[in-house]
Amino acid sequence: EQTALEISRGDYSKRILVASPHTEVGHLGQSLNVMLDRIDTSFEERQHTIEQMRRFISDAGHELRTPLVSVRGYAEMYRHGWITEGEQLDQAMERIEKEAIRMGSLVDDLLALARLDERRPLDATPLELNKIASDAALDTHAQAPDREVTAIEDAAGPVVIGDEHKVRQVVTNLIGNALRYSPEGSPIEIRVSSDAAKGSAVFEIVDHGEGIPEQFRTKIFDRFWRADTSRNRETGGSGLGLSIVQSIVAAHGGVVSAHETPGGGATFRVELPLAPLGDDTVPIPRLGLK
Which of 61, 122, 188, 272 is the most exposed place for a label (fewest CB within 10 A)? Predict the structure, then answer.
């Protein structure tokens, strides 16, 4: 009774001492302890969510503020007559256009993450990873002709159940990351493999660039996280691409991780559940965005 009174006053760390677990009072005490454990967990999750949201809003505001300040600055310079006709005006308009494009890209990424957080159901269909890899290699070569992009397919022809648009978005984001952080002209590989025993299919995006230090390999999937805060924001991206990748992969019941490429570079590995055998035409309704 005393313990219950202290709990009612807000001390949720208290637990009821169950001396006789096989009695009715003992059963009641055990049930209350289980309930208190769940309340504690809920409070911790709620606090973690609030802290994440505050940090996310702060980071998003900071990211949007930077290009807005640039646009406002050029507009004021023009209004005060400090920018004249000719080369100066052309340069100012070019900078305003680039900042507007970057803001648009950032807003698109924010909207994508907001939709992912809403846990909307996926448009799940059977997907051949070999085909997705070969298509991605062709698209990347068209985008960067100086790169040798190779799709290494799996003879087993792994099939997963997922949203084709979003799975392709994962591949596109990871390849874009590889192009951005590896030297011009260096090769990129897209490897597909499968493990029937584990019931999983794997595709990897392999680059031969600067790589990712081990202590950063989990943090890189956090929203707006950058290893180098002084990195140029135009070349460094919005800091949301890998967060979008992680959210999409998690929605498909998979896992994404970063590893070191032998000889130097970064390898991003995505593991997805294989499609059920003999049932490759029926979408799985349990898949949902997280």
Answer: 61
Number of neighbours of residue 212 by Cβ within 10 angstroms: 20
Output 195-198 pairs: Cβ under 8 A, ≥24 positions apart.
196/156, 196/274
Eight-state DSSP code of residue 199: T
pTM equals: 0.66
Q: How many CB atoms lie within 10 A of CB 32?
A: 17
* Phi (first) and psi of residue 225, to 5 degrees: -80, 140
pLDDT tens profile 212-244: 888 888 888 887 776 554 344 444 556 688 888
Beta-strand ranges (E) seen in 50-138 are 125-128
Encode pLDDT of 35-72 as tens digits.
888 888 888 888 877 887 777 777 677 777 878 888 88
* Longest CA span, the chain: 90
Asked whether 59 and 220 are in contact (CB, 8 A), the reply is: no
> What is the C-alpha to C-alpha distance for residues 197 and 126, in angstroms, rounded to an integer?
20
Residue 127: count other Cβ atoms within 10 Å of its Cβ: 22
The tokens describing 54, both together, are 């505050």
Pick the closest to residue 187 from 210, 207, 212 (CA basis): 207
